[in-house]
Amino acid sequence: MDHAPAPPFAVHLVTGGGSSSGIALLLRSLAAARVVALDAEWKPRRRGSPAAADPAALGDDTTPASETSPAPPKFPTVTLLQVACRFSDGGGGEGERSEVFVVDLLSVPLADLWAPLRELFERPETLKLGFRFKQDLVYLSSTFSAALGCDSGFDRVEPFLDVTNIYYYLKGHDRQKKLPKETKSLATICEELLGILLSKELQCSDWSCRPLSEGQIQYAASDAYYLLDIFDLFQKRITMEGKCSSTTELTSDRHCSSVVIECSSSGYGICSGSCLMSIVTKYSEKIILTESDAKPRTSRRKEKLKIPANAKRKDNVDCSSEWQGPPPWDPSIGGDGYPKFLCDVMIEGLAKHLRCVGIDAAIPSSKKPEPRDLLNQTYKEGRILLTRDAKLLKYQYLAGNQVYRVKSLLKHDQLAEVINIFQLKISEDQLMSRCTKCNGSFIQKPLTLEEAVEASKGFQIIPTCLFNRNLEFWKCTDCNQLYWEGTQYHNAVQRFLSVCNISD
Ligand SMILES: [Zn+2]
Q1: CATH class of domain segment(s) 321-422
Q2: What is the largest CA-CA distance in the chain?
Q3: Is the N or C terminus of the chain more exposed, i.e. has fewer CB atoms within 10 Å?
Q4: pLDDT tens digits for range 221-238
């Protein structure tokens, strides 16, 4: 698997315990930054589970939260806030400098952060960048309200620029036209624009566990940091196209003109400074949370019925990831009773494991499928889409009960999870009954050695050491791959017997 090279930035992990210097640096950076990229992580909540059962929701005992015992949070508790700051550098040189912070909201007193964050979110001369940040803001607001009292949320971020819009601008999409319906993941955007592969492995890891692993910290930090790099591309393009020329009426706005002066005097350069403000004036938007945004969806199902098929959907999607049946193969809704899955590219290993226990598990036909392609295949073939990409869940309203987000990280745990969630009944004779290479089925009758040798001609070499043993062969009816009972086979059977709870 490809991994991003070591990231080109140092990360400040800001925790509450003993390193208040980290908080001080963070606050100074927030105050001085020209552009701030934001991202947040939280632990997805199980539907219907009381908030108190969520360790993240308990908050920090040192915050005023426990004294006033406020109502439990209505949304998942944000446990990590990532902030990448870019400022002008008085020391000249490139003129730009960045600091990247991963702020542990489980240990930093939220009371220390609230006012500086709120000021940052509303400061007109600092551009905020995010990737579909509205949902993050809803959760962040709820997290702060729960800890500090109901007036301690956030209700706006302005000026704001969504990286999705930057992406479409850079791709030459006409601003006057509607944006394409399918949304690109941040990983896709980073890969296309920066040529950087973000590891997706940790995307769905438990962000409420402490200590965070080095991998988690780096992953979280990159999600914010690369937003700055993408913004740089955008800024360069705008400058190149001369769209931030002096014709923009910067002086008509008091804020803007003062910023230009400030920028140039601090060495930021009149061009990039004015260009930034020109971008803010021309391209930025704002996120405003209304009362309805602060209300969680009580029932996804009810909500779904109310939404007409072609209705626009708000982007503050409940990240509840519980699957609600019945599956498309359920006989009660006309299915044939045979479970069928489509495993997203991140969990192709799970597809192989499912095939090992005889379950039909397809993988996407393309290496980099768009969400639309995944959903089309899911629909057409009556499958359930298994994914680790929480962002795909927002298509759940399109795909009915056909999208499930796998929570486990390891293949064996994932297999056990899927067996458990979908109540799959697996018998011993199902084990190794499907081609792990292509998901095809085997011909019913095991082949003799002679038949196997014949079948393998010009296609696959059967080790001669197998010739004197009394082995059974199977052939895949789709890709013709031959399988035989080797040591690996027996070991695998033993492993799967226990994963599938089959007693022999
Ligand atoms: Zn095959």
Answers
A1: alpha beta
A2: 90
A3: C
A4: 999 999 999 999 999 888
